[in-house]
Structures are given as C-alpha cells and as structure tokens.
Amino acid sequence: MSERKVLTKYYPPDFDPSKITRTRGPKQVGPKVQTVRLMAPFSMKCTSCGEYIYKGRKFNARKETSGEKYYNIPIYRFYIRCTRCSGEITFKTDPKNMDYECERGAKRNFEVWREAKLNDAETEEERLDRLEREEEERNAMVELEAKTLDARREMEIADALDEIRTRNARNERADRGGVALGEQGDDRDGEREREEREIEEAARRAFTTEEGEKVRRLAEEEGESGSSAVAGEKKAAVAEKPKKEAAAAAVPLFKRIVKKKKDFSAALGIKKKPGLSV
C-alpha cells in the first residue's frame, strides 16, 4: 500500500514516449459530470433487491449539475450503485427543505420527525385562525391585568381615605380635649390662689395685735438660746476627738494573737476515729 504514495513511477525498459500521441476528443455535451466520494445522506431501501442501505455508508458517486435552480442555488444530482445488485440509485439536493430528495432506484425509509412535520403543516386559513386566537387570548390577558391594576388602585385609594379620616378625627378630639383641659386648669389655678390668699390673711390676723405689732412665739426665743448652747457643746466635742485619736495611735500593742487552725479533714472526706473512753 505504500507504493501509491510515492512521487516517482516505474517506467519499463522498452518505454518509448514518442509513441504516445496527443489526441483531442470531442467536447462534452450536456451537464458536467464529476466523480466524487460521498456518504449516503439518508437511509434507503433498494427497489430492485430490497437491500437496506444505512445513512453514512460511503460510495464512489457521479455528480452532475441538473441545470435546475432554487433562488439562484444550483441543484446537483448524484448516481450511486446498490451494494448487492449494483442497481443504479439517483438522488438530488433539496435546498428548499435543506435536505436530499430520492429520485429512483431506491425508496427512502420512514422517518418519524419528517412525517410529523408533514402532518403538522398548516394551511393559510389555519394559520390565520391560530393568529386570531392568539390575539384574542393576548387581549383577554391584557384586560385581566388592567382590571387587576384598577382593583389594586381602588384599594389603595380607600386605605388612604380611611387613614385621612382617622387622622382628622384624632386631631379633632385632641383639639377639643385641649380646650377643655385648658379651661379646667385656669379654674383650678384661680381657686388655689384664692385659698392661699385667705390662709395668709388669717395667719396675719392671728399673729398681729390690735396695735399692729407682730407676736413672737416662745418656741423661737427658746430655740435661739438652746441653739447657742448646742453649738458650744459641738465645738468642744470636735476639739477633743483628735486628741483621743492621737493618744490611741501613740500607744503600741504587742499582744500575741493565736490563729485558729483550720480543719481540712472534713473537706477531704476523712472521718476521725472517736477517742476511747476510759
């Protein structure tokens, strides 16, 4: 297999290049044919022998330009042979559906997705009906959303009005209560001042003589004399206190203080044996 990759070729000893004549054949008439290597674009069944050819199998095919076009896209035709009976199978490209179309020699196998697509293909009337239904559903949803927004707006307005009414009523009650409390406070202040003036007038009359002199209480005179004596005693006590403190600090004490031993046996859980009685 390696000899097919070499660049040089074998020439026999009796090779004479002058014997090779250059001939011109007739020009090709008709569609241009080209030999290509391709894979089967779809699974198919041969109509001659019933052989199944799966998608992706490789063939040496002839490719020709059919001369047909779809929106200026050329359509190509391919010729292959069945692997069992060598029957010719022809298929061509389908730019409209972005696929291939089997022409003769074989039958394309059933494909569910393609059959469903063909069954679901809708006509112009069906498409218009579907668009009208979608438009009606969309309008119904828009109306429902508008109704929901209106209801929510009305609820918010009602809540705001209730809050305003409550605040106004509270302010009105507060104003009324403030006026009443102010009047009651003025009346009470006037009564209190009148009572105080009456008490002061009665006291002044009780502690003044007919000549207009003020009467002094005995308790005040006794309080003045007693207060002077108490003040003298306090001064003497304050003067003696630092002397006693200085005398107590000057005398040192050397008395021995015996500290009591602590009993740790109870804390450690040790029980003492009772002494023997004689």
Describe the structure using short key phrases:
278 residues, alpha+beta, 3-stranded antiparallel β-sheet, 46% helix
Rg from C-alpha positions?
65 Å
Total helices: the number is 4
The biggest beta sheet reads: 5 strands, antiparallel
What's the count of strands?
8
Low-confidence residue ranges: none
Distance between the termini: 131 Å
Please give the share of residues in helix.
40-55%
What percentage of amino acids are in beta strands? 15-25%
Encode the helix/strand succession as letters.
EEEEEEEEHHHH
Structural class: alpha+beta
Integer average pLDDT? 77
Main sheet: which strands, in order across?
A: 1-4-5-6-7
Shape estimate: elongated
Compose a concise summary of this entry.
The chain is built from four helices and eight strands. The chain has helices at residues 112-119, 124-206, 218-250, 265-268; strands spanning 33-39, 44-46, 52-53, 58-70, 73-81, 88-94, 99-104, 106-108. The two termini are 131 Å apart.
Structure, described:
This protein is α+β, with helices and mostly antiparallel strands and about 280 residues long. Helix content is about 45%, strand content about 20%. The chain has 4 helices and 8 strands. It has helices spanning about 110-120, 125-205, 220-250, 265-270; strands at about 35-40, 45, 50-55, 60-70, 75-80, 90-95, 100-105, 105-110. The strands form 2 sheets. A 5-stranded antiparallel β-sheet has the order 1-4-5-6-7, with no helix packed on it. The chain has a 3-stranded antiparallel β-sheet with strand order 3-2-8, with no helix packed on it. A hairpin with a 5-residue loop joins strand 2 and strand 3 (about 50-55). The two termini are about 130 Å apart. The relative contact order is 0.04. The mean pLDDT is about 75.
